[in-house]
Structure formats: C-alpha cells, structure tokens
Design brief:
The chain is of the alpha/beta class and 525 residues long. The protein has three domains: 2-193, 3-Layer(aba) Sandwich (Rossmann fold); 246-366, 3-Layer(aba) Sandwich (Cytidine Deaminase, domain 2); 398-517, AICAR transformylase, duplication domain (Cytidine Deaminase, domain 2). It has a six-stranded mixed β-sheet with strand order 10-15-14-13-11-12, with helices on both faces. Strands 18-23-22-21-19-20 form a six-stranded mixed β-sheet, sandwiched between helices. It has a five-stranded parallel β-sheet with strand order 4-3-2-5-6, sandwiched between helices.
Length: 525
C-alpha cells in the first residue's frame, strides 16, 4: 500500500476532475496543476500549486513546455526504496509525486473532424505522454490515472484504506496507461504515415505502417472448432459505439461462428433502404427479401428461398421486431435474431426460447452499420492483407443487349446485385419480386454456382420463369447464359470484362435475355 501525499493534475477531458480534486484535497493531498486545469480548479475552490510556481519556470512556447522539468519527472521517477534516488532528490529539492492524473490532447478527435495538418500537429501531446509513461514505469510508488471512469474507484479505495492505494490497483492503472500511449502513438503514426512526403506527391492510399489497437469484448467458449480457443475484440471507440455496435438481450453466450454470421447478416441487411429480412448460414445468405408491406412478409419471402438451410441460421432485420413476427420466428430453430429494436411483447415471446440469442443493433435502422476499421483486414501467410471496404454498387448500368430490362426487371437486378456482394465467390443469385429464389455460393466454377442456384429454386418450389440473375464476376463462357435461358430467366446483371463478352452478349440476344454490365465486380473470398 502507498499513501498519496502529492498529485499532479493536468487534463484535456475535464469530466469529473473538479470532484476528484476536491476529494483529494479533503484527504490532505497537495495538488499541482497546469494551465486551464489549474484555472478550473481554482475557480471551483480547490487549492492548487501552479506548475510554474512549483518548477520555478513559466509555462512557455505557447503551452508546448509546461511539465518537462526535473522537479516533475524526478518526483515521478524517483524510487522510494532506493537510497541513492532519495539522496539525489534531497540534493536537488525534488519532492515525491505520488499520483499523476493526466489525459492527453484530443489528437484522434481532431483528425476525425477533418482538421488541417497544422492543427493536427499542435494536438500531438508531448508532456502528457511523458508524464504518464514515467508514472506507469514507476507504478511501485506512483498511481497513474488516465481515465475519468477510474476516478470514483480510486477515491473509494483511498477512503477505505486511509489515503492509500494498493499495488494491484497501481499496476492495473499502469497497464491502462501504456495501452493509451500505444493507441495514441499508433493514431499519430497512422495519420502521418498516410500523408504524402511533399506537396508534389500524390496522397497515399495506405500508410507506410498501420497499427490497430483492439479491446477485448469477451472470451469465447472456443473458436471456429472446439479445439481452437477464441475471443472477440473491437477497435477502441473514443466513447462512441462502446458496446461494439450491438447488445445481447437474451440467450446463450455468443460463439466465434455466431459473431462471424452476425457480421455477415448485419452487413447485408444494412445495405437496404426498404424493409428487409436476411437469413445467414455459414457466412452465406440462404434467404434475402424486401417487402413494402413489412418485415413479416419480408421474412416469409426470405425463408421460402431455402427452408432447409434456414434451420440453425441467423436472421437479421432492419426494422423493429413486433410480437407477430416474433411468434413466427419461434416456429423454427434459430441461433440468433438481430434487429435495431424489439418491442416488449416480442421480447416476452422470445423468452419461451431461453437459448435463443436476441441481439439489438441500433445501427441497422440507419442503413449501413458503421465499420470502425478503416480497412478490411485478413491474415495471410506471415502477415495481413489490407483493402478498402467494398461499398461500391452499380452506379451506371450499361445495357449491352438488344433488349433492355423493363422497370420491374431492373429493380430485381439491382436487388440481386446487392445480394451478390455478400455471397462467397463464385456467386450467382436468382431473384424475383425483390426476393432471392436461388443462391449459388462459393463454387470453384461459375457454371456450378448457376446450376446450384437453379437446383435450390426448384427444391424450394419457387417459380424461376421470368426471374433475373446476378453474377458477382464476368461469365467466362456462354454456358451460364444458356443455362439461364433454359430455366426461363429474363434478365442478367454482371460486371462484364470477359474476353468472350461479345459471344456472351450474342447468346443473350439469341435467347431474348436483357443483360446489363456494372463495370465492377464483387468477389468475396
């Protein structure tokens, strides 16, 4: 246990700092403070020693130089059990500092709001990180406090322990400090590393180095398989999206595979403006539908696409789930249900299935759920691959056949194209009336994906005649078009770009099929 006699307080985020300082002062702690923090504490009736009075040097260089002084850092770094340290401190008039309460200039928030380079640089903190790193290093003797959320916990322990803090607490605070400085330096490095080296250079698509800090949300029972361990992490959130974008309202603990499938479901359903229902199984959709009449009808259409695969799946909606929809959902075994909101009667209905995971994700009501990663990140070989998110859609369709799609066909083509983006390659979607009726996913040849989409539609008893088809990449041969014609499909959407495009367009014209090119593809490996 170490008693707190002297503290330095210098914070950018002043949440709760007055209350903290008052309690420390009441406990007999001498407080040293800087700049705006000192002014705030004085106005609030807290006795403080200005940093310039303590060091004998004024704050200077427009506030860049305040705390970089031996009386500050010697007081923080000096080891109380080391007689040589104590002798040096006595010789040079350095008093021990037992607590450092500091949070840093808001660099991350500054660049997030689009500030210019000069403003960004001025928000790179120097004195703050130096002080808290010193305090964390010497946590055997010094408590470092970087998070206002810890203030009350610290005060409670000091009250219970006659002004002292335990080594366990000081070590915990030191860990949090180094996590903060690691993230802070990473944000600066990522920002500067992404800038061109001179005004004449083009902007960089990717920084020279890229550092991500992740916070653990929870341990998982196991990974993809029971012999693998697993955990779920999220990027640091600066207070927004602190719950990783969702809240589990009931049900069993989430598994590794649940979270993967939840992500797939949320990304797909979040791509639609209209009321939408999505059913995911093993990271692929097995049902997708829109409905102008509501989520109940959307779900019925999505479920009709592949009732067999829906068993044990994850269902996502982009609107509030009511009790009628909840009763329908309870009709089959599902791993999880995700929506932006649930009414009280729906939650009561789900209580009948205690293991069913009910997930509230408010972002789904705002279309695309926010991805807090700047890039898609995948492990590969001995490193990782980074890429920008696939957020593109068909902006300008090019009709390449003699017949253009009619209005209803075009609506279905765009719906199917959106679905394609979320299906593992090779991906083929059959769709009719804003609902998927056959999905061919993850095959090594595109013709097999087309064949599987047709089989799925036939097994589900869904009418393919007059439906449309989407392909996530170009057709290498005309066989896909011939098969589409065989099943009565009337329109196709695909990227184009094959060396056989002319042959494929000719095949579509032979069958009276309308075909449009998007100019972009949607591979999903």
């Amino acid at each position: 246990m170490k008693k707190i006699h002297r503290a330095i307080i210098s914070v950018t985020d002043k949440t709760g700092v007055v209350e903290l300082a008052k309690e420390l002062h009441a406990a007999g702690v001498e407080i040293i403070s800087t700049g705006g923090t000192a002014d705030l504490l004085k106005r609030s009736g807290v006795a403080v020693i200005p940093i310039s009075s303590y060091t004998g040097f004024p704050e200077m260089l427009d506030g860049r130089l305040k705390t970089l002084h031996p009386k500050i850092h010697g007081g923080i770094l000096g080891r109380r059990a080391d007689e040589a340290h104590l002798k040096d401190m006595r010789t040079h008039g350095i008093l021990p500092i037992d607590m450092v309460v500091v949070n840093l200039y808001a660099f991350e928030q500054t660049i997030a709001k689009g500030a210019g380079f000069a403003e960004a640089v001025e928000n790179i903190d120097i004195g703050g990180p130096t002080m808290i790193r010193a305090a964390a290093k010497n946590h055997e003797d010094v408590a470092v406090v970087v998070d206002p959320a810890d203030y009350q916990k610290i005060l409670s322990e000091m009250k219970a322990k006659k002004g002292m803090l335990s080594l366990k607490t000081r070590l915990s605070l030191a860990k949090k400090c180094f996590q903060l400085t690691a993230r802070y330096d990473a944000a600066i490095s990522n920002y500067l590393g992404g800038l061109p080296d001179s005004a004449e250079d083009a902007p960089k698509t990717f920084p020279d180095t890229y550092t991500v800090q992740l916070e653990k949300v929870q341990d998982l029972r196991y990974g993809e398989n029971p012999h693998q361990s697993g955990a779920f992490y999220k990027p640091h959130s600066n207070g927004d999206d602190a719950d990783a974008g969702f809240t589990q309202l009931q049900g069993k603990e989430l598994s590794y595979n649940n979270i993967l499938d939840m992500s797939a479901a949320m990304n797909l359903v979040g791509d639609f403006h209209e009321k939408a229902a999505v059913i995911i199984k093993h990271n692929n959709p097995c049902g997708v539908a829109l409905s102008k009449t509501g989520l109940l009808d959307a779900y019925a259409l999505a479920y009709a696409c592949d009732k067999t695969s829906a068993f044990g799946g994850i269902v996502a909606f982009n609107g509030k789930v009511d009790s009628t929809l909840a009763q329908t959902l309870n009709g089959i075994f599902l791993e999880a249900i995700i929506a932006p909101a649930f009414d009280a009667a729906a939650l009561s209905t789900f209580n009948a299935k205690k293991n069913l995971r009910v997930i509230e994700a408010p972002s789904l009501g705002k279309r695309m759920p926010q991805n807090r990663f700047i890039y898609d990140i995948k492990n590969a070989l001995s490193g990782v691959l980074l890429q920008s998110h696939d957020v593109e859609s068909a902006k300008e369709l090019k009709t390449v056949t003699k017949r253009a799609p009619d209005e209803a066909e075009l609506e279905d083509l765009l719906f199917a194209w959106t679905c394609c983006k979320h299906v593992k390659s090779n991906a083929v979607i059959f769709a009719h009336c804003q609902a998927a009726i056959g999905i061919g996913a993850g095959q090594m040849s595109r013709i097999d994906s087309t064949r599987i989409a047709a089989i799925k539609a036939q097994e589900a008893g869904l009418e393919v005649e007059g439906a449309v088809m989407a392909s996530d990449a170009f057709f290498p041969f005309r066989d896909n078009v011939d098969m589409a014609a065989k099943h009565g499909l009337k329109a196709i959407i695909q990227p184009g770009g094959s060396i056989r495009d002319e042959e494929i367009i000719k095949a579509a014209d032979e069958h009276g099929i309308a075909m449009v090119f998007t100019g972009i593809r949607h591979f999903k490996h």
